[in-house]
Amino acid sequence: MNMPTRLTEIIDEFASAPRDVVLEMLLEYVDALPPLPADMIGHDGMEQVPECQTQFFLRANVQPDRRVEMWFDCPPEAPTTRAFAGILAEGLAEASVEEVLAVPSDLYQRMGLAAAISPLRVRGGSAILARLQRQVREQS
After folding, report:
1. DSSP β-ladder status, 68-73 and 47-48
2. Which of 7, 14, 68, 86 lies 20 to 30 A from 110 at CA?
3. Residue 80: which H helix or E strand, with range?
4. Where are the domains of the chain?
């Protein structure tokens, strides 16, 4: 199974962009996170991602039709981390279990972000993806 078309498009857009605009492009995803449902405010039922420099929480739910619902919470003061999650939220919207699990662990490197942001931030973004995929695997 391949990744969802939208995530592939996002990766290709970043990978082909000039290095000097990659950070600007990343920050365009800061507001792509949908608001948390009321029952998750306060991070109830969410998992913290301690590898992130800021407090970051996520939750994935596999639905009976094998589609994955996902929620992310990160403070606005952490735009890079919010943008990582925004890319996943937009690129994996309506994705199946198989599509989520097909996302390569070096996603952010493939996008060219390793050359634009610190290795510590890339590691945090990779940890977000790894925890999301682990939650999906555990439920499928």
Report:
1. unpaired
2. 68
3. helix 79-91
4. 5-139
Distance in angstroms (rounded) separating the CA atoms of residues 126 and 106? 7
Tokens of 32: 């792509």
Bridge-partner residues for 72, per DSSP?
A: 58
Contact by Cβ (8 Å): 11, 107:
yes
Q: Is the dihedral of CA 27, 109, 12, 1 positive or negative?
A: negative
- Over residues 48-60, the pLDDT tens digits come to 999 998 899 999 9
| DSSP label at residue 59 | E
**Segment 33-79, tens digit of pLDDT:** 989 999 998 888 999 999 998 899 999 999 999 999 999 999 999 99
Question: In terms of Cα–Cα distance, which of 99, 22, 4 is closest to 132?
Answer: 99
